[in-house]
Design brief:
The chain is an alpha/beta fold. It contains 12 helices and 9 strands. It starts with 10 loop residues before the first helix and ends with a helix. The chain binds ligand C2E and magnesium ion (2 copies).
């Protein structure tokens, strides 16, 4: 609903406002109505702005990947990195949330997702030439798995670089697993057949059915950083973390804790059998050279119980 003259003085402006209100009502679950408001207008303008920035960044090569180390909790060694999307702006670098949302809404996610894999694969080859054997985990949107194009693209990448499956892992959120829906588990089986490892990201926050878990060919779970952050404050979060660790152990999945910021969190996780951790305690996402330097550091002081195991 849009009203003259508050929401638009001429027919074009009024129709644009009505259109914006229609999108808002669709986003609110359809079969409902919304009146235009400045906030709705702002949200539409923001979304259009994000899409423009995404197109511009893809065309003018303003995207980059930053890499955040993952650490083996027992030895402290860097065992891999996660690639995180960034956009260069005149004022620095911007995080991925708006870009990913715009890409998913506009259908550009396929192109963006391929850019991410191609860039990570090229980085992996550059590292391997320098003797650095660090697997790179990339985030994949469920929408990319809806058709066979992404799997065919991955197969092409592997034909070109047969070693790639040892150095590339895919992270999918539970919500993505649901989005990929029906044919999804076949897609996962095909990806696994290519030799790539699959990790479930933000575990415990999305699609809350545990029934799907044993049916999917997964290799690891990443505990959502919300639970990790809550561990120090709330008994509930600690119990949830312990439950996730127990489920993972029963299903023989590795566990990676994300968002580890304190030594206390790392110790709790290590003492309950969590395999790996990632977070500001160790290193922030940074350009490739910084991640490689981190991996080359003496890692013994990062080990949680190296005295006990020495
Ligand atoms: P994610 O995959 O769960 O990535 C972890 C996020 O936690 C990253 O945010 C990282 O910067 C942040 N983080 C890492 N350590 C800590 C910590 O110790 N404390 C706190 N508070 N945060 C920490 P970022 O880079 O903003 O990425 C946000 C999300 O965007 C990612 O969550 C992922 O779902 C998505 N994303 C990032 N890159 C891509 C991409 O290339 N493709 C797709 N489809 N999604 C991506
Ligand atoms: Mg991730
Ligand atoms: Mg995550």
């Amino acid at each position: 609903m849009a009203r003259h003259p508050e929401h638009g003085r001429d027919p074009e402006a009024l129709l644009a406002a009505a259109d914006a209100a229609m999108y808002a009502s669709k986003a609110a679950g359809r079969n409902t109505w919304r009146a235009f408001s400045p906030a709705i207008g702002q949200a539409i303008a923001d979304r259009a702005g994000a899409l423009h920035e995404l197109r511009d960044a893809l065309e003018h090569d303003r995207l980059e990947l930053h890499y955040q180390p993952k650490v083996d909790l027992r030895s402290g060694a860097c065992v891999g990195v996660e690639a995180l999307l960034r956009r260069r702006t005149p004022d620095g670098v911007e995080g991925p949330a708006r870009l990913i949302a715009a890409a998913e809404e506009s259908g550009l996610i396929g192109r963006l997702g391929e850019w991410v894999v191609r860039t990570a694969a090229a980085q992996s080859r550059a590292w391997r030439r320098e003797g650095i054997a660090l697997p790179i985990a990339v985030n994949v949107s469920g929408l990319q798995l809806r058709d066979g194009a992404f799997v065919a693209f991955l197969a092409d990448q592997i034909r070109f670089d047969p070693q790639l499956p040892r150095f590339l892992q895919l992270e999918l959120t539970e919500t993505s697993l649901a989005l990929a829906s029906d044919g999804a588990s076949e897609v996962f089986t095909e990806i696994r057949r290519l030799g790539l490892k699959l990790h479930i990201d933000d575990f415990g926050t999305g699609y809350s059915s545990l029934a799907y878990l044993p049916m999917l060919p997964m290799d690891a779970l990443k505990i959502d950083r919300g639970f990790v952050a809550g561990m120090t404050r709330s008994q509930d979060s600690r119990e949830i973390v312990l439950a996730i660790l127990a489920v993972a152990r029963a299903l023989k999945l590795a566990v990676i804790a994300e968002g580890v910021e304190t030594r206390e969190q790392a110790e709790f996780l290590a003492s309950h059998g969590c395999d790996q951790a990632q977070g500001y305690l160790y290193a922030c996402p940074a350009p490739a050279a910084a991640a490689a330097a981190f991996a080359a550091q003496d890692h013994r002081q990062r080990a949680v119980d190296h005295q006990a195991t020495a």
